[in-house]
Structures are given as C-alpha cells and as structure tokens.
Write a structure and sequence with these properties.
seven-stranded mixed β-sheet; 152 residues; globular; 7 strands
Length: 152
C-alpha cells in the first residue's frame, strides 16, 4: 500500500469523504458531527493523506495541528472494499510517526460513542490512545469519545 499526501480533488477521495460525512450523520445528530469538509481539509494547518493499493483508493486520514505541541487525527476512513485489511492501522501509525517527527507531545482525536464506532475505538486503544477529557474547542457530548496519546 502506498500513502500519498493530498489528492483532495480526486473523485474517489471526494466520494469517500462524502460517504464518511453521511455515515457520521447516520450515527450522530448534526451538532455532534465533527467531520471536516473538503474546504476545511485544505487548510494550511491540516495534512491529508490517501492510502492507495494498486492505484485504487483504500482509505484516508488527516492530521491537524492544534498548536506546536499537539495535533488531532481527523477524517479517518477506510473504503468498504479494504475494510479489515490493515489500512486504518497503517495510516494511523503513519500519522503517529508524523506527529512525533513534528515534535508533538500529544496526539488527540474525537470519535463517536455508538456501536458503529467501536472498531475504531479498539484500534485507537491498540495503538496507545486513552480516553481523555474534551480538548481544543470540543465540549462534553454524549455522542463523542475523546482520546489522546502521549508521543513525547
């Protein structure tokens, strides 16, 4: 598998991000959905990666800089065809490495609380993330689980 930076204009990436957003809306009320749109993912403080296998999109994810010491994982999604094939783990390990290279001390994320989010929570725990209080501008929300990993 090949992890490439960018590709936000690729039709397969756009479709996957739209699927991601719609799925989030299916499981959580709109005010509890924190998925970023294409415009937000294009900001200078966000690095977006797409995972490709034989030039077919397998997944995506982004790393947002919150400040000089911490980042946030955003828009993690695996295509249905590549579920349970290690795409999310590969990309998450890549983003953890990138956060470490950038000198971040903490890597944060927000994910849902519903049953559909349990596989993601399991992966995050396997890679050292622990439940934490809300960070950045987030507020307590029954539809959100906040997690962090110390990487310093």
């Amino acid at each position: 598998m090949d992890i490439r930076i960018g590709a936000l204009t690729h039709p397969a990436v756009i479709a996957l991000l739209e699927e991601h957003h719609q799925d989030m809306l299916h499981h959580s009320p709109p005010e509890s959905v924190h998925a970023l749109d294409l415009s937000a993912l294009s900001h200078a403080d966000i690095t977006f990666w797409a995972v490709w296998k034989n030039n077919e999109l397998a997944g995506c994810g982004a790393l947002k800089e919150l400040d000089n010491s911490q980042g946030e994982i955003k828009s993690m999604r695996t295509t249905k065809k590549f579920l349970r094939q290690g795409v999310a783990k590969l990309l998450l390990e890549h983003m953890i490495d990138q956060a470490s290279t950038r000198g971040y001390q903490t890597l944060n994320l927000e994910t849902g609380t519903m049953e559909a989010f349990l596989p993601a929570q399991k992966l995050y725990r396997q890679l050292g993330f622990e439940v934490c209080p809300p960070f950045a501008d987030y507020q307590e929300d029954p539809y959100s689980t906040f997690m962090a990993k110390n990487i310093s």
